[in-house]
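Researcher: Structure prediction, please.
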Amino acid sequence: MSGTVGVAPSTATFTLADGQTMALADWRDDKYYASAELQNGDTQQIEVFIAGRSQTIPGGNRQQTRVDTNLRRGGESGLPKDFEMLVYGWGVKFVRAMRPATGETQPRLADTGGALSDPLNLRTMFNIDRVLYHEYFYNGKSYTQGVAQDYPQGHGYHVFSTNTGFELAQNGVPSPRDRQALVIPVYERENLDFRWVMQPEAALAIAQAASDEAAVLNFVDLKVYKVGLIKVTVV
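Model: Predicted structure follows.
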């Protein structure tokens, strides 16, 4: 509407349940994403969103880059000052199955020195999905629970092949809207913690045959997205 108190005329607005008026010009349709590393035999809880850029990836020991997360700081500290978000869905993407470089015990981002990354095959995804429990918390309150297939990634590779030896698995059909969605969004504000918790209910079994027929791939990177409206803040 136009003429709302405190809002410039001709600015499209809408009103939340608590009476707050929001101007659409101040918000963008976007996402926050963060990553974690899984390893064969893992049984411990891993929390996604708790680490920002240049911090250690949850579940591993390498430093996160911009392809791993777009968070400026860990979600335990909440959104930065003056930032707000209306979260209307989440997605889980399996990024890669990988192995460390020769003589090393932990994966790198780059495939150098004998390290290798491949897309996940169906057996690897199935073995993870059937035992890995997911739950999202905001300000100490649980908002959603499930397994990876409950949170389709909504984007990714799409490949068709007649080669019987070819296999590529992904968590959902590529589409900008094919993901779990909320009728009423979660309204998140600055300095209130958020985290995505993953708990293996049995030891993870990750041992994917490598495309170069060398050592098996026993690590997996996955990425969690939360999508919605993010308030544009001048910094």
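Model: DSSP finds one helix and eleven strands in the chain.
Researcher: Thanks, that helps.
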